[in-house]
Predict the structure.
Amino acid sequence: MYDGFASLGDTELLNKARTATYIRKFLPGINVLCRDADTLHLALQDPAYVSPAADGAPWYRASNPATAKFYGLFPATVEGAENSTRSVTVTELAGDGAIQSMARHGSKEIRFRVSLFALDEEGMDAGLTWLKAVLDDNPCGNRGNNCDGRDLYFYAANPSAPTQAEALVRADRHLRVMHRVEPLDGVRVVAKYPSKYGQWWEVEFLLNAGMPWAFTIPDPVTTTTNVVPSNVNEVYCPTQTDAYDQLVVDPQEPGVARPPRPPLIEPFVMPGSWSRYQMSIGTVFGERAGRLVPIVRVTTGAAAARKLRVRFYRNGYDGACDYEGEFFITYVPANSVLTIDGPRKKISVTVGGETKPAGNLVIGSDGRPALWPTLACNSSYFVVVDSVGALNSTVTTDLSIRE
């Protein structure tokens, strides 16, 4: 993680180039070594920094002159973003050895230790108050019980470059996002270094990422627009993910008793035939390690959409039931957008300018639970969209890489 920039939600939290510029101009007695970020503003598509007031710095308020005397955050250390949270529970056997559980990934903690700079105590108080407000703005407060947290944007590597064109290429390549992020604690002042040159304080704060991976910014890869469909018959997949069918049993003896299946939605009648739209995801994503995580959007017009199915297949798949992920969309209102957000594991529908939860509208075939795909890299994939009759909506797929 590049320590020179971080944005929590829509608020720029840390910008090394901005703070370094202000310190050099307004606190000349304090020496700041920050040549690696001199052109960071090009990657952020900002003009060259001048002053908090002229630049409209995140903390600046024209009605509060003290905010013009605060100069921002400068990183000392940012720790934890690269750490894995993978864990496995080991159960020791009565005999030799042990059994390992399936791996799970816990939440991730990211600790920031930063320096705050201001012209005087009044400016430091204004800046510290702003920072506390940013970290205290809990989306789970009176705005509902969704507890979605915020997004943390940062760069995996320094995007700075001599020209804006090169900087934008590097920024696109290195920009990352973590989802469901919230502070675990507030600002803790570690040290104060007041001097005749101004105020210099060191503070710490801790963020927690509920989704413990960094994701690349989604890239659009497929759309049903202009795809010519084919007519196919439904193939029933009764044994999908049923490991008991792999057992060898004596035909003259009772079979192995299966555990109960997941609950189904009954009654549920699958269509007998489909109009199939098949699109390819190329191998360009295989150049980078990680897992491919799709974001599916269904955009309707004047008519509602019903009974759409989206499946993901690895290239060279063995039969219709060999899919990597599946969503059966029962209904999408007219003039709306249904979003199946793989990185956030969230399904919502936006209609009339309002976004609402829509997990109840997406299931799996035959009433089974939907199957979220995470696709291995170094392979090409197909996206298959099935509709009953001609498709009266547009289905698009974006891909993000989970690192």
User: Anything to note?
Assistant: The chain has two domains: 5-86+102-216, 219-402. The domain at 5-86+102-216 is CATH 2.40.30.200 (Elongation Factor Tu (Ef-tu); domain 3).
